[in-house]
Write a structure and sequence with these properties.
The complex is a heterodimer of chains A (about 270) and B (about 260).
Chain A (H helix, E strand, L loop, with lengths): L10 E10 L2 E11 L4 E5 L6 H8 L7 E6 L2 E2 L5 H8 L2 E4 L11 H12 L4 H14 L15 H12 L6 E5 L7 H18 L2 E6 L2 H7 L2 E6 L2 E6 L1 H5 L4 H8 L15 H11 L1
Parallel strand pairs in A: 3-8, 3-9, 6-7, 7-8
Antiparallel strand pairs in A: 1-2, 1-4, 4-5, 9-10
Helix pairs in contact in A: 3-4, 3-5, 4-5
Chain B lengths: L6 H24 L5 H14 L4 H25 L6 H39 L2 H7 L4 H39 L4 H11 L2 H28 L5 H30 L1
Helix pairs in contact in B: 2-6, 3-4, 3-6, 4-6, 4-7, 4-8, 4-9, 6-8, 8-9
Classes of the chains: A alpha/beta (about 270), B mainly alpha (about 260).
């Protein structure tokens, strides 16, 4: 495969099926993520959003189907090829996943030191520029434990874009953020997308936020893509599941109750067994 | 009844674990790269697992020497052989007690800490983050800790032995009034450099390797929950204690 991906690659999942722990997570799932845009992958908890990200990054291999980044087939890559691919991916994990024994500066410098032979003064400049982008240059010498959750996530964002990746993934970037941090995260996703001309994929269940940053959306439910389109087209959708999800209704195609027997039957059985 | 809870399953489970741990070790060694980073990180881990275990090793060693001399002195005095106390002390320390007790203390102090650290790294997605940055977590996390144990335990065994002999000197010479020249010359005359001291140090290297292998393995395979990490640290101590005692018997049988 090529050393470096095109600056804004497109991503394609074709008829992908995968089961984890005996449960079918994605079933004949197909998705086209357009190049150079911010795409939001939405869906209720446990719908398989993070699995989609793990398939694209090559952490998981599908039981069947194909995963493509531009003209490179990810699901058939060797470990060495995957490593080369991942140097062009930036991933913001749900908890930030910063190394607690390293300062914020060293966390951001880690991928640069590992994958380049740049001299230390240049690395210092690059890291400070990345930290400046996320507004935390002043926190360079602090440890992650000395910062708030929102700030940690911004440092993790700086680390994810340290090598100017072609694709940025954000796994639940808004979970647990206060309104100010949320606004900052939203703006950063757009800014990074424009500045680095990346293809950005945001995994989120925060449907209210999508219209503010995404160009394109995909809603996953029961292992399938049930709706795709621009944020506006989704809010106008007549699909029952999309409407339940967009309006946050507690019951609908996604049931409120976990599958169980009838309550009356269960209570009656208890009474009889006494 | 699940496959693992049935009687044959329960018997096979430790074997399966052993197989997985073996494969894990093979993977760790097959991806070994000797770089400047590896050397620096290994030194850092020697500090964390070795230097920071010094308090428990020095205290433990001193009191083991003290109590061992006390009991031996009392027993030998009944046969009029109290001057042989330094011989018994040195031989039991160099051959058995030094390596075994040091490894057990190391497992309790550093092994649990390594397991918990790696387990928490898994739970907080730090290992995933390394993988996604195309940095091999085996190389960055596992190998330095594995190598550190192999270096730290023999060094700690030496320190343990020295402290235990000091404990023996305090009791026999300063408290019971034994002749210091007899004490040291008896020890010098009976302890053989290779057969007693050398074999003990070989054991120390083997135990250090075993303790750090089990610590990193249980951390690596810990379920990413608080309960999973707690269970993994317990497994580290139990598995290390049992396997060190078994290996000690096997090695002793071959060395004698």
């Amino acid at each position: 495969m090529s050393e470096i991906l095109a600056s804004s690659p497109s991503i394609t999942l074709k008829n992908v099926s995968i089961s984890l722990g005996g449960r079918m997570v994605l079933d004949d799932f197909s998705l086209e993520i357009p190049a150079g845009q911010v795409t939001a992958v939405l869906g209720p908890s446990g719908a398989g959003k993070t699995t989609v990200m793990r398939l694209i990054t090559g952490q998981l291999k599908p039981d069947s189907g194909e995963v493509w980044i531009d003209s490179e087939r990810v699901d058939q890559m060797s470990a060495r090829q995957l490593n080369r691919l991942r140097r062009n991916l930036g991933v913001l994990l749900q908890n930030g996943a910063l190394f607690t024994d390293l300062t914020c500066f060293d966390n951001v410098a880690l991928p640069i030191r590992e994958h380049t032979a740049l001299p230390e003064p240049l690395i210092r400049r690059l890291v400070l520029l990345k930290l400046q982008t996320v507004g935390l240059r002043g926190a360079a010498d602090l440890y992650p434990r000395e910062l708030s959750g929102g700030m940690n996530r911004r440092i993790a964002m700086a680390r994810a874009m340290a090598l100017d990746p072609a694709i940025m993934f954000y796994d639940e970037p808004f979970a647990g953020l206060d309104p100010i941090s949320l606004g900052v995260a939203r703006r950063l996703i757009r800014d990074i997308n424009q500045a680095l001309r990346t293809t950005s994929v945001v995994i989120t269940h925060d449907v209210g936020e999508v219209a503010h940053f995404a160009d394109y959306c995909c809603i996953i439910s029961d292992g399938r893509a049930v709706a795709e389109g621009t944020p506006d087209s989704l809010s106008d959708s007549s699909n029952e599941l999309v409407r339940q999800f967009v309006n946050g209704l507690p019951d609908g195609p996604v049931a409120f109750h976990y599958p169980a027997r009838e309550l009356a039957d269960e209570l009656l059985e208890q009474d009889l067994s006494r | 009844m699940s496959a693992t809870s049935s009687p044959p399953g329960r018997l096979l489970n430790p074997l399966r674990q052993l197989g997985r741990a073996g494969l894990f070790l093979l993977t760790a060694f097959s991806r070994m790269r000797l770089t400047r980073f590896q050397a620096a990180e290994t030194l850092r881990q020697i500090y964390f697992s070795g230097v920071r275990s010094l308090v428990i090793i020095v205290t433990g060693g001193f009191f083991v020497g003290l109590v061992l001399t006390l009991q031996t002195y009392d027993t030998l005095s009944r046969f009029g052989a109290a001057e042989a106390v330094s011989t018994v002390l040195a031989l039991s320390l160099f051959r058995e007690l030094g390596p075994v007790l040091t490894t057990l203390l190391f497992a309790g102090r550093a092994g649990t800490s390594i397991t918990a650290e790696i387990g928490l790294m898994r739970a907080t997605e730090q290992l995933d983050a390394l993988d996604l940055m195309a940095i091999d977590p085996m190389e960055r996390i596992v190998q330095p800790r594995l190598l550190a144990g192999i270096v730290a335990v023999p060094a700690l065994v030496l320190i343990f032995n020295v402290c235990a002999i000091l404990g023996g000197v305090v009791f026999a010479v300063f408290m019971m009034g034994s002749d210091p020249i007899t004490f040291w010359s008896n020890m010098q005359a009976t302890v053989e450099l290779w057969r007693d001291f050398g074999h003990g140090m070989l054991k120390a290297v083997a135990f250090g390797f075993l303790a750090s292998w089990l610590a990193v393995y249980f951390g690596w395979t810990a379920r990413p929950t608080s309960e999973g990490v707690a269970l993994a640290t317990t497994q580290t101590v139990i598995a290390t204690a049992i396997s060190v005692l078994i290996l000690d018997f096997v090695l002793s049988a071959f060395m004698l």
